[in-house]
Amino acid sequence: MPSRLSKLRQIPLVAIPFLVAALLGGLVLADWYWAIPTTRQAAYVGRNSCMECHQDQHDAFVDSYHDKAMDLATEQTVLGDFEDAEFTHFDIHSRMFRKEGKYFVHTEGPDGEMQDFEVKYVFGVDPLQQYMVEIEPPTPGSPVGSIGRVQVLRISWDTRKKEWFYLPPPDVDEKLAPNDPLHWTGSAQNWNHMCADCHSTNLHKNFDLASNSYHTTFSEIDVSCEACHGPGSLHVEIAGGTSLFWDRNHGYGLKELKTESNVAQVQTCADCHSRRRVVCPTYERGDTYYDQFSNELIMPQTYYCDGQVREEDYVFGSFLQSKMYHKNIRCTDCHNPHSTKIKFEGNKLCTSCHQHPAGKYDTEAHHRHQAGSTGASCVECHMPETTYMEVDPRRDHSIRIPRPDLSVALQTPNACTQCHLDRAKLSPEKKASLKNYGAWMTAARNGDQEVKQALAEIDAWAQKTVVEWYGKDYSQDQSHFAYALSEAWHENPQSFPALVDLVKDPKQPGIVRASALTQLGAFNGEPELGRIVKLSLADSDPQLRSAAIMVTEFLSAAVLPRPEVLKLLMNGLDDPTRVVRTDAASALAGTSLEYLKLSGKEEAFNSALTELKESLLRNADQAGALLALGALAETMGDPAEAEKWYRAAIRVQPNVTGPRSNLAELLTRRLSPARQRFQQLAAQGQRAEARKLAEQVAIGDFEIAHLREEELYNLGRDASQLPNVAEVQYRYGLALYQANQLEASEKAIARAAELQANSVTFLTALVRLQQKREKWEAATATIQTLRLLRPNDPGLAEVEQEIRQQRQPDTSQR
């Protein structure tokens, strides 16, 4: 019998290479096929693991703004003067000093008493540095390294001028009481909720509602590698392995940021560089943005009607409007991702891409300014700065053509006027009091007629000059979305067609279309709106679908029958993005579970509802989230659960408006049957039982009255601090009306109507109040204003008739 060796010898020599190749191919195939299981989750490993292979990137990162986003307060990191430096603001005399190698601030504490507070952490390096105090330690038994309740001082260090300054809340220029949410010890300055998520890596807030305490953790104190690339353990394992291939299940083991489209990278940056609400409590950097967050749309509190920034939007909302974004430009085309610096200084940053025929843009023929001057700078015209935090100028990333014609028509800012404020015919003292263009715009918006007139004159000059230079008069072209949004913000009933055109226009940025769609909610009886929401719910942009859910929820039955509305909302439960699913769950919260079950959507609804509750519970340290949970419970018919959340909201943030009003209304409704029963028993002469109910009603009434009294105080505080915010004045006026303080109520609501002159809501409330106070002439004048806004409103004729009847003397009594 032949041996195996002899059999091998019988194989032709020519076949051996093929056998070897087959063997090697099999080994290579096996090498490729072996993979890390898809269920394996990546963990955070820290930048030192990255540095082993990526030294150049690490070196660029060191000392960057991301590297200095947050740090321990040490001799190397503290930039401010703590050598017994003194600072006085609003009669509070603070002192910054050192003791035993630590840094301290002697200032007003949460109880109003002057105390010493140890500075444990610092924020930033340029143009300011902020300082943080841990005013409550983490609860005993918290994980090692946990951080308790940390507050950010308003006393800050100007790193350029080398001096202390006070960082006030936007538009609030008065002393803050220690119990004010805006005080440095209040919720607005709480690091754990307001700041931490975007200043450290792998941040877990870890708020415990039962004890009202934090044990916040992070893997790295600053914005390190894994903040953007995601946890790196799988990448380290794959890169350090012996395989010829990257992993077939996990690829590189990191978030893919270098895709053909710019979306993945821009959205990864937007995790922090956006004004947004959290949708998912357990997200990873680089995941789809709309599974994690929902960005704020173009609304008057944050933007001007043309989309320019008013309050800080952290870039994303502006960049979404730009042509750059829609031409696939991404953040790293201009910024080095590791050093965070811009890639080139001066106009080369723009001309490195905009190379067009020689001299087309970077020439006087284009910018009409002397070469090398401020006016010749691309960014000064197309990305003007707005100063935030008193000393920090930040550029508008909507990257737009200056439009002084919009300023003339709609009082928006423009880059031309911003540079030429020296043309204003104001006294030197007045000019000196206005620190920057934003201050000029705020003064004009708040009713300073002298500043308003000065800006109007410069705007008109700028418009005339632009027409002379470029020959194009934009003032006759009202196609810009600013006109439609402005009309909608002023509640103009004629704005419907323009808003519809915006929503339907695929050339408009998604954020603009979604913003217009939300404004269409005011026209929930318009027949065409049904078709618009159907189109929007099928749009590829989650912003449109999310906005459409909110509008669909309140559609009139005349537009779409309720079953069809519910069908559209239920379809949203299966949306690929979490933000739309949770919005749909919220909109369907009042729908019977039996109906959802019969429609085959019970499971999808419960899943989306769980996601919604998770997103709210992540922010259980905020009264607003607890208030939303309470409202959700009420909508779903569980008043006991709602009461629990309302009371939790008051306990967590006792100085915030909202929860007390909702709780008072809930208790009033709950007490109503007892009140009616008491009246019946009293009428029937059943005194003993009536007396028991009377005590129950009295106790309930006492609590309700106390809640309303506290809410009125808080609303009054807000109205005092924000005298030029119409919505705040209106809410305060309604609370005063409920407290039967009619004169003060009329004054507050009249102020709201003055600030937002075309608001039908405010004017209607005002005329009803004037009617109640029998101020007939004022009421008639307000009705005439309303008639100009709503000439076909039959309700106005009814109000006029009521007033005429009330003014007639009652002859039957003579």
UniProtKB/TrEMBL annotation:
TPR repeat locations: 623-656
Where the record annotates domain Cytochrome c7-like, the positions are 344-420
Q: Which domain of life is it from?
A: Bacteria
Q: Record's Pfam families?
A: Cytochrome_C554 (PF13435), Cytochrome_C7 (PF14522), TPR_8 (PF13181)
Q: Which UniProt keywords apply?
A: Signal, TPR repeat
Domain Cytochrome c-552/4: start-end pairs = 191-230
Q: Which Gene3D superfamilies match?
A: Flavocytochrome C3, Chain A (1.10.1130.10), Leucine-rich Repeat Variant (1.25.10.10), Tetratricopeptide repeat domain (1.25.40.10)
Q: PANTHER family given for it? A: C-TYPE POLYHEME CYTOCHROME OMCC, DISSIMILATORY SULFITE REDUCTASE SIRA
The name on file for this protein is Probable deca-heme c-type cytochrome
